[in-house]
Amino acid sequence: MTLPMNGSLTRRALGIGALAGGAAAVGLLGGCGSDKRKVSGSAPDKVTYLTSFGLNGREGYAHVANAKGFFAGAGLDVQIRAGAAADSNNSLIASGKAQFAAVDSSGAFIRYANKSGKGVDKGFQVVAGIHQRTLMSLISLDLWGITSPRGLEGRKVAGVAGSAIEKMWPAYARLAGVDAQKVHWQHAEATELPGLLATGQVVAVALFALAAGGVEKVAQGSRAVVLGYDEYLGDLFGNVLICSETLAAGNPDLVRRFTGALLNGLVYAVSNPGESARILKQAVPTTDVAVAAGELERMRNYILPPAGHPVGYLDMAAAARMVASLQSNGLIDSFEPETLIRHEFLDDAPTLAGGARPVPSGSAR
Fold first, then answer.
1. Same topology for domains 2-133+236-352 and 136-231, yes or no?
2. Are 190 and 85 in contact (CB under 8 A)?
3. What are phi and psi of 204, to 5 degrees?
4. Of 3, 38, 93, nearest in space to 252 by CA
5. 184: helix, coil or strand?
6. Would you list the domain boundaries of the chain?
7. What is the rounded (10 degree) CA torsion for 160, 139, 207, 302?
8. Cβ atoms of 155 and 124 closer than 8 Å
9. Residue 353: which pLDDT band, with cuts at 50, 70 and 90?
10. Diameter of the chain by CA atoms?
11. Which fold is adopted by the domain 2-133+236-352?
12. 187 burial class (0-12, 13-18, 19+ CB within 10 angstroms)?
């Protein structure tokens, strides 16, 4: 299915016409290993989706998928909830309180194969990629004179406790030539971080690179300086979509339908950032439309898949390099990416008109 970046949608993407049918409608969890299909006209499946973090512009594609009818067209009634950092999303997936969640891929890999063996979680699967490269970064302001990672030594940085950005800090610091022990981390709520930076209580905050516009709004006239982790950790994916292993095995059709609908919302959102930001504001009144639109527009280049594949596809050679990179930095034990990443749920995922970004071949410096 081709979904041009101007936002025009195919008949299939809109969910018009009958969905692939089976003998009867199925519940949220089918029998293990079954491949039951949703019957057209039956009651929608109710699922809960967790954003990666909060309900900001870069997470707005889920609300776009809802407002544009992608979820309804796939036979789904989706509750969208604000996700949180650290292990919160995985915990809610494991407990069955949510069925799908976006999480940072580095954090997911670490949870799946933690080097220490403590807190290892094998109960989830990655069913699609959201970003083809990491969005992790440290954001400063030109006020504080930070022009490179080395400028952070002897100064304070703030982040959300347990975030993947902090977990990856030692690896990033080592590759950037920074003494990680000379940078002092403090913890705060995500909503507090821009204010701490603007008032000089810290000189950088741990946020996704796309948050730079929101940081500048709080700083009122100062320009953001983004220290992207992808400069030194080029083998990391960004956010990925996960569900429980039980759901993937027990109701693969539900996983396919949700994955396709969410990814169609993602492509529509980055293709139509202004409209999508207004959609998000209708759902989340505190949304700053200009900031949200800017985040979605900048996110376009992060979602472009390997050539010849749909949005959401994660190149397995790149995944193997990511495993090797995390292992070399002492964060995980080695594992085969095929045990975690699944591609069979991308049947309804969109492709992009005009080509796609080649798979990166470089390794972490």
1. yes
2. yes
3. -160, 155
4. 38
5. strand
6. 2-133+236-352, 136-231
7. -160
8. no
9. low
10. 66
11. D-Maltodextrin-Binding Protein; domain 2 (3.40.190)
12. middle
Mean pLDDT of 303-314: 94
What rounded mean pLDDT belongs to the chain? 86
d(CA 26, CA 22): 9
- For the segment 195-211, the average pLDDT, to the nearest whole number, is 96
CA atoms of 145 and 104, how far apart (whole Å): 29
CATH for 136-231?
3.40.190.10
On whether the CB atoms of residues 280 and 15 are closer than 8 A, the answer is: no
Report residue 159: phi and psi, to 5°.
-160, 170
Residue 275 in this model has a pLDDT that exceeds 70 = yes
Strand runs labelled E in 116-211:
124-129, 136-141, 156-159, 184-187, 204-208
What burial class does residue 116 get, using C-beta atoms within 10 Å of its C-beta: 0-12 exposed, 13-18 middle, 19+ buried?
A: exposed
Q: Which tokens is 345 given?
A: 């749920």
- Two tokens, residue 295: 């985040």
Cβ atoms of 94 and 124 within 8 Å: the answer is: yes
- C-alpha to C-alpha distance for 9 and 70, rounded to whole angstroms: 10
Distance CA 205, CA 263 (A): 29
**Structural tokens at position 338:** 């095929």
pLDDT number for residue 355: 33
pLDDT in tens, 1-53: 334 443 333 323 333 222 222 222 222 333 333 345 566 668 999 999 999 98
Nearest to 288, CA basis, from 358, 218, 209, 184: 218
CA distance 154 to 164: 22
Higher pLDDT, 139 or 33: 139
Reported for 29-33, long-range contacts at CB under 8 A and 24+ positions apart, including other chains, are 29/246, 29/247, 29/250, 29/251, 30/250, 30/251, 30/253, 30/254, 31/250, 32/246, 32/249, 32/250, 33/249, 33/250
